[in-house]
Structures are given as structure tokens and as C-alpha cells.
Amino acid sequence: MNYPCKVMPLPTFGPTVNLIQGSQIVPQSIEWLWNGWLAAGKLQVLAGPPGVAKTTIALALGATLTVGGRWPDGTRASVGSVLIWSGEDDPSDTLAPRLIASGANMNKVYFVGSVSDGDDHQTFDPAIHLEALTERARQIGDVKLVIVDPIVSAVQGDSHKNTEVRRALQPLVELGAETGACILGITHFAKGGAGNDPTERVVGSVAFSALARLVLVAAKLPDQDGQPGRRVLARSKSNIGRDDGGFAYSVEQCELDSHPGVWASRVWWGEALEGSARDLLQPEGDHEDEDGNEVDRWLRDLLAEEGEIAKAEVIKSGKACGFPERTIQNARKRLGVRVTIKGFGKEKASVWSLPITSAQSCQPKNYGMNGTNGMNGTNGATNHPPIVPYVPTVPFVPYADDVGDAGTNGDAPSWTARAGLEAI
């Protein structure tokens, strides 16, 4: 965007730095394709280890845009075109089948092919042909998502050098700014670093995650007790919104009805998840012994000492002890912790307390003048009705992981919605 400049008198020689006066800048809100997850005109990164369906996730999001379907949170997408460049997968046997399986309108999908210059044809190189790609995107007119897979291909030099990566990615940033499209670059996690901040695990220079306004991460948790580990898409970093939360997802293979014999993978979305990306990607048993005794004992002792304590304080205290929120929530369920809602409006809060056991239950006692607890301390008299302390009954409020038995393992979420097919 061009702003009028108010500057001091120009020097008579040498380069001039143009200054923009703050009062000339009109504040603008972020425009979202998917609120909190895909920002129009911004560079984003989707990272994760091999084999977690990163490309399939990106294609599922693109398919949703092409038909105005529903995002994983159930909100409606606006219709737009998708531009795809892939240096790893073939459009005919991999990318197009996955899009069709996800319900995409293929008339709104464009794959980047070769580059023509007169009679000369060259292989498209995102490091040198982005200006020509920007012009083609303008001609299409409604491009809302550009997928670059892998984003490291946009770097001609050393992808581990901060300066070279920033210089190489700048054309992608400008492509998004000029077309209003979300630029989604796909990349891998570096080897090692499990348990670290997922943003720090993005392979190559820190510039990849630093320039990106949002960093999304995908992962598959280890199998446990013979059950497949849950797959998670989470927000690891955001400079323009929330940087937590995620969604469970599963991946399935299906045969295309329109092309018998052609099989493709597609994503099914599951329940919304709470917590940081680091916690959501942490294997469930990492902070527990075989029976979960460590975190269970900590939570039981905390609640026994405090009586009632706000959930926010429990989570804060647990994280200080090294327990992720999900691990604490699992301990809550094992211990049968009572969850009550107290207060109203801004003062409304979830409060945890230990369950009432038989030894703690409020049984009627004789509170007569001469009873066990009476004025004279003797037994037997019941000349007054028993006084029973009032214990309010509050319905149990489930945590996200409690909703549905099938939504916790990833392969059969408690509710599924293939976004690309939810346009009607």
C-alpha cells in the first residue's frame, strides 16, 4: 500500500529515504480465510515430520476454499481459487486424486507447470519465477491460497543462512501482499528436538518461522496399548492471533468414484483440542509412570491441600512442575475430580475439587440437645430433626477429550466432516 509521505526537504544528492508519518497510516484488521488459522495476504508455514499427511492437509484446506465448504471448526469458507506448486508430488497420480477425494471443484484449482519464454520452455523455479507467477495469479483474479511444497525450494542459496532465506522468501511475501492470497509453505521438522517448542523444530534457518506470520504443525503421536496414536494439527506460532489450540484428524485411503482404480488419501477432521502445540504434540505418557502415579499423586495432593482450586491455577501449577495440560486433564479423569462452574460473566470460572468418598459423604447426624453433638455431649437423644449440610449438585462439565469415545485415537474421530463436501 502506498502512503503519502511528509518528509524534510530532500538533499540535493545521494539516495533518499522516504518516511511515512504515523498519522497517515489507517489501521486495518486482519482478513482471514479461516479465522485464526489462514490469513489472507500473509506467509504461513505448515511443518511436521515425514508421513503425517502435511500435503494432504494443505490440499484439504484448498478443496474447502474451492467449494465454499466448512472448515474444521464448522465455519463457512468463502469461494476462491487455489494455486499449487509442488516439487515433490505429481499432479496426475497424487495431487489431483487427493483433491478430488476431498471434494474439490477442480475448475478452481491451478497447478504450476513450466515457464514459457517465446519458444523456450523452462522448469518453474520458485526462486526466480515468482514475478511471472504473480502476474498469472492476477489474471485468474480470485486466487485465495497458494501452496508451495516444499517452501525450501524457493531458496536458491543456503537454506540454513538467515540472510539468504529472508532474501529468497521476500518475493513470496510480496506475492501474498499483492494478490491477497494466503501463501502456505510446507516444510519438515529437523531431526531430533522432540519435546522442544515445535516452531524451533522447523528445518533450516529460523527465518522460515520468523517471516511466517503463522506456523502450523502436524504430527502423529506414538501408538499406545495397541491403539493408533492420535494425529494433531496445531497452531505453534502466530504474530496476528492466538497461538494455541488444534484439531484431531485422521487419514484414510479411498477409491475415486469418478475414476475407478484410482486411490487417494484424504483427511477427516475430528474434535477441537485445547492446549499449546508443544503439549498437544507431547506423547501422553511422557510425564507419567506406568499407572500415571506421578501426576495423579501431585493432583490429589494439590486438591487435598487446597480443597477447591480454579482450573487455571491447577494448570499453571502443573506446568510449573513439568506436566502438560493434557496430562493433567487425563489425571483429572482418572481421579474422578469434581468440576463445578462458579461465578457469572467475567468472574465465571471452572473449579476443581476431589470427589466425595463414602468416608466424606454427608450422612445425617443427631444434632439434638442431648445427642452426640448436642449441648450435653451424651448419646441417644434425637429430639430435633437431623441437620444435613447442603452440598450443591452441579452437572459435570466435560473436557474436550471427554466428548465421544472414538475421538481420542485419531482414526475414528467422534465427529467427522470432510470440509470439501460440506458446501451444501
Textual characterization of the structure:
It is globular, with a radius of gyration of 28 Å. Helix 3 packs parallel to helix 4 and helix 7 packs across helix 9 (325-335). The strands form 4 sheets. It has a 9-stranded mixed β-sheet with strand order 5-4-8-9-3-10-11-12-13, sandwiched between helices. A 3-stranded antiparallel β-sheet has the order 14-16-15. Strands 1-2 form a two-stranded antiparallel ribbon. It folds into 2 domains: 31-274 and 408-421, Rossmann fold (3-Layer(aba) Sandwich); 293-402, Winged helix-like DNA-binding domain superfamily/Winged helix DNA-binding domain (Arc Repressor Mutant, subunit A), CATH 1.10.10.10. The chain is an alpha/beta fold. 23% of the residues lie in helices and 21% in strands.
Q: Report strand order across the widest sheet.
A: 5-4-8-9-3-10-11-12-13
Mean pLDDT rating: 80
**What percentage of amino acids are in beta strands?**
15-25%
Question: Would you report the number of β strands?
Answer: 16
Number of domains: 2
Per CATH, the class of the largest domain reads Alpha Beta
What structural category arises from helix and sheet content?
alpha/beta
Q: Give the terminus-to-terminus CA distance.
A: 37 Å
Please estimate the helix content: 10-25%
Low-confidence stretches: 286-291, 358-424
- What would CATH call the architecture of the largest domain? 3-Layer(aba) Sandwich
Classified in CATH, the superfamily of the largest domain is P-loop containing nucleotide triphosphate hydrolases
Instruction: Note the total helix count.
Output: 9
Q: What are the secondary-structure elements, in order, as H or E? A: EEEHEHEEEHEHEHEEEEHHEHHEE
Shape: globular
Return Rg in Å.
28 Å
Q: What profile does the largest beta sheet have? A: 9 strands, mixed
At CATH level 3, the topology of the largest domain is Rossmann fold
